[in-house]
Amino acid sequence: MSLHYHCRHCGVKVGSIDNMSIHSESLGFHQLTDQERQEMISYNNNGEIHVKTICEDCQEALNRNPELHQYETFIQ
Description:
single chain; 76 residues; 4 strands; elongated
C-alpha cells in the first residue's frame, strides 16, 4: 500500500510514500473537514491512496496571479 501526492492543477506527481505504517494524524488528514477529505483524498481498489496537493510551480503561479484561484486548472 502506498500514498501518492499529485498536483490538483497540473497533475504532476509531487511525491510518494511507500511505508504505510504512518498514521493519518502524522500526515495531517485529521485536520481536514469531511468535505476537504472527499475533495483531496481518493482510494484505489488496490489500496493506494491519492492525495491532491499543489506543486511548487503552481503555488508560485498562484502567488503571482491570485485571480487564478478561481480556476480548477490553469496551466496548459
